[in-house]
Design brief:
heterodimer, A: about 525 residues, alpha/beta, Rossmann fold, 3 domains, 6-stranded mixed beta sheet, 20 helices, B: about 325 residues, mainly alpha, two-stranded antiparallel ribbon, globular
């Protein structure tokens, strides 16, 4: 018996999942948006005192199912049952009243109000603003609520002063203040670092042990392995795994279930020995990075590794003119490349693939096609006239090749899942005819396994086409697997250089400054 | 291919047409049925004459709105164009004076555009300042009183003449619409305006020259407005420092009524035209029905807010959820 099962047994003195009635179940749920069928028969049963992980690629229908469970969307067909009674949810308020409490990925606390006032927000919202006085909440009450999640902060402190992880715990505590039967956590660890994740998981276990069903949505399979008692998988809007005990499925099986086929580890072809394309000398941005010197060959993928604050991300951005530089020089094919000017860099054949999709990547309201062609407008035009046909001929094959789903070039970009948006951003760079250098800044951030593999292939393809590729990734395993060489950065300087294959742990040791 | 395929195509085309076009058609039908003498050739020509000036201003406004900006300065652009043109007719002759008027507008647009693009000042404040200062300058140039234009065939033809069988103002607006349409739909510059309006940071990182495109948006926008100013000048036959002060606001209202969002990155030429025609028809109907002009202002104001409300409801519905609730 694994430690996980032992823990699950210990947490559950009576009954098993199959004997007790489900806290909340959804059966045969169907939901369409226009012509897109987001869900076609999804089934999910959450039992009291379990952590239930829901996984699936972006676009598999996870968020739609979750929205239906919390009343934010109404299903076209299918039934919801709470305990033993059928459930109809007209709004999130109905769901909260029924004991189904969502904790949002984007925090919804009011930063200027105190912890206590934030804890009371649901109570206030439940009543009419004009009728009745708000319920009083003493500091002792607030402390008791916070204790449920193992949080010990001053209830009078403004929420804005708490760390992100603490705020998230306050938000969970607020949800538990109601008669909470089901807690829904949508990617709660997305913005947390490892220590904070541990703290969150301790709170989740505590909540589970008092009998609440916890639905846990995450892309990170390692976390699921750690926290989940059972797991369900959605693919193309259908349930392909319905609440199997976590210990019974390996991570590899999970990935295969999610993407629908086996995964094979591809190997990137080695770059030609000669042909240096990019030469970086003495690149310095005070306080961020200093005196960087390296070169990249045609066809080579160079990984810049570094923890947050190491300057690695900024250094990669600086290559594309997207981060200002004080000193140093860049040379591309022997020609000097102006720094701090994305327009000039673009003109010289430098492409940028951003990971911050919403802030720096997509053009909301505009079609996938328009989003994909944004960096090639000059090539697709003659004398300022845009050639629609040329644009489609250039971009559509790429959309097919990177299997953008749905294959609907005219659909506004925000209607695509995060992974597919990221594929479109990759196409924006790949479609550039004269691309000499591709700077990819955390290109697979928040992207599911299927899209991640496609992005990796896209980077390898760019390299195979003769471009130099420089990648920064917050996922060190990915970076090491993807790159020909890895430069480790710490405190703005290159502290070690590796040729792959190399053990991730040795790179990590260099990043953290630990003795190898 | 089945016989029903073309019908299906028409059906999807109709479904894709902006809602404001339906509103326009409905309004036309209602006014034609309810308001006497509305649907006569004479009256509709009149509507088109009024619409022509508003349309020119609205095209200029829309170009800036698409980039995510706003241009209040069109009120003073019209006045300065008018004053400069009339001042220069005696010394330069009509056509050169008209050109000088246009250059004035270009200068205003260039100042607005430079401040917005290079100094990254908010368009709202930049163009508001330009609106106030421009009126001041126009007033200064003519000593605060309207300046009568010398009799000039070139100038009067702009308002009274015909071109290709159409009154000149309508012909100018029609040509301007074609330019506006092609610019937004078929050029790299127009595409860049949409991209910048949708996400300026992403546009910069994609290698687009955001600053140049913003500068050109304000200049091109001002040129459309200058055309409106010249026609107005010809109509009143004088250089007026206070010519049509509500023009920028009516132009913004027309864009909003047509369904152009003020957040940038969206809006089509057809929507702008529909908004302009809706405003012009309402203004005309109010006159025909002998209502007070105050009623007209209230109607346009209410309609502007109503149109934005309808847009908001339509936008919110699909994605209401999770983050909105």
């Amino acid at each position: 018996m694994s430690s996980l099962e032992q823990r699950a047994e210990a947490a559950r003195p009576v009954g098993t999942w199959d004997e007790a009635p489900a806290a909340l179940s959804a059966t045969g749920v169907v939901k369409s948006f226009g012509a897109t069928r987001a869900l076609r028969g999804a089934t999910l049963a959450l039992y009291p005192a379990e952590v239930h992980a829901l996984v699936g690629e972006n676009g598999a229908g996870k968020s739609t199912l979750v929205k239906i469970l919390v009343g934010a969307l109404q299903p076209d067909a299918g039934t919801l049952v709470l305990g033993e009674a059928p459930l109809h949810l007209g709004s999130v308020r109905d769901a909260v009243a029924a004991g189904i409490v969502p904790v949002y990925q984007h925090l919804t606390l009011m930063p200027h109000l105190s912890v206590t006032e934030n804890l009371l927000a649901f109570e206030l919202a439940a009543g009419s603003p004009l009728r009745g006085r708000p319920r009083r909440c003493t500091p002792a009450d607030a402390r008791a609520m916070l204790a449920q999640v193992g949080l010990d902060v001053d209830p009078r402190a403004p929420v804005g002063r708490l760390s992100l992880a603490e705020r998230q715990l306050v938000e969970i505590a607020r949800g538990l203040g109601r008669d909470c039967k089901v807690l829904v956590l949508d990617e709660p660890t997305a913005a947390l670092h490892r220590g904070e994740v541990d703290r969150l998981f301790a709170a989740i276990r505590r909540i589970r042990d008092r009998g609440t069903a916890v639905l846990f949505i995450s892309h990170k399979l390692g976390e699921i392995e750690e926290i989940a008692d059972r797991v369900s998988v959605l693919r193309d809007g259908q349930s392909v795994l319905e609440g199997s005990p976590r210990a019974a499925v390996s991570s590899r099986t999970l990935i295969e279930l999610m993407i629908g086929h086996g995964v094979e580890a591809g190997r990137i072809p080695a770059p030609p020995a000669d042909a240096e394309t990019l030469r970086v000398e003495g690149l310095t941005a005070p306080g961020v990075f200093a005196d960087l010197a390296f070169s990249v060959r045609r066809g080579e993928i160079l990984g810049l590794a570094g923890l947050v604050g190491s300057g690695a991300l900024e250094a990669a951005a600086a290559l594309a003119g997207a981060f200002p530089v004080r000193q140093g020089s860049l040379r591309l094919d022997g020609q000097p490349l102006p720094t701090g000017d994305p327009v000039a860099a673009h003109r010289a054949g430098v492409a940028l693939l951003p990971g911050e999709r919403e802030a720096a990547g997509v053009f909301p309201g505009l079609s996938a096609l328009t989003n994909a062609s944004a960096s090639t407008l000059g090539e697709l035009a003659s004398f300022g006239w845009l050639r629609g046909r040329r644009e489609r001929e250039r971009i559509l094959p790429w959309l097919h090749r990177l299997s953008v789903n749905p294959m609907a070039p005219g659909l506004p970009i925000e209607r695509f899942s995060g992974g597919n948006q990221q594929k479109v951003l990759a196409i924006r760079s790949l479609a550039m005819a004269g691309m000499k250098l591709l700077a990819a800044l955390d290109p697979t951030r928040g992207v599911d396994v299927g899209a991640r593999a496609v992005i990796h292939e896209a980077l390898a393809h760019a390299a195979a086409g003769g471009a130099a590729v420089v990648v920064y990734s917050s996922d060190l395993e990915e970076l090491v697997a993807l790159s020909h060489r890895v430069l480790a950065m710490r405190e703005g300087r290159i502290v070690a250089r590796f040729s792959t294959p190399v053990a991730t742990s040795s790179v990590l040791a260099a990043l953290t400054g630990a003795a190898p | 291919m089945t016989a029903s395929a073309p019908i299906a195509v028409i059906r999807t085309r109709l479904a894709a047409a902006p809602a404001s076009l339906y509103a326009l058609a409905l309004l036309f039908l209602v006014l034609a049925l309810v308001v006497p003498r509305f649907a006569t050739v004479g009256n509709l020509t009149n509507v088109a004459r009024v619409a022509a000036i508003l349309a020119l201003a609205a095209f200029g406004q829309a170009v800036v709105l698409v980039t995510g900006g706003i241009d209040f300065s069109s009120g003073s652009s019209v006045a300065l164009t008018s004053v400069v043109t009339v001042l220069l007719v005696p010394s330069l002759g009509a056509s050169e004076a008209l050109l000088a008027g246009c250059l004035t507008a270009v200068a205003i647009g260039a100042v607005n555009g430079s401040l917005v693009a290079w100094l990254e000042l908010p368009p709202f404040l930049v163009t508001l300042g330009m609106l106030i200062a421009g009126h001041g300058l126009a007033s200064l140039l003519v000593g605060g009183v309207p300046l009568e234009a010398p009799a000039s065939l070139g100038l009067s033809r702009l308002s009274q003449g015909t071109a290709g069988g159409l009154p000149v103002p309508i012909a100018v607006a029609a040509v301007a619409f074609a330019v506006f349409l092609v610019l937004l739909r078929r050029t790299v510059l127009g595409r860049t305006w949409y991209l910048v309006g949708s996400n300026a940071r992403a546009a910069r990182l994609a290698g687009l020259d955001v600053r140049q495109s913003l500068l050109l948006a304000y200049v091109v926008g001002s040129l459309f407005v200058a055309a409106a100013g010249l026609i107005l000048t010809a109509r009143v036959s004088s250089g007026q420092p206070n010519l049509y002060p509500s023009l920028p606001f009516e132009a913004i209202a027309a864009c909003a009524i047509g369904g152009v969002p003020l957040t940038g990155g969206a809006g089509t030429p057809a929507q702008v035209l529909a908004g302009v025609l809706i405003v012009a028809m309402i203004q005309n109907a109010v006159v025909l029905l002998n209502f007070s002009p105050s009623i007209q202002l209230m109607l346009i104001g209410g309609l502007t807010v109503g149109a934005v409300l309808v847009q908001q409801v339509a936008w919110r519905r699909p994605s209401r959820a999770w983050s909105a609730s």
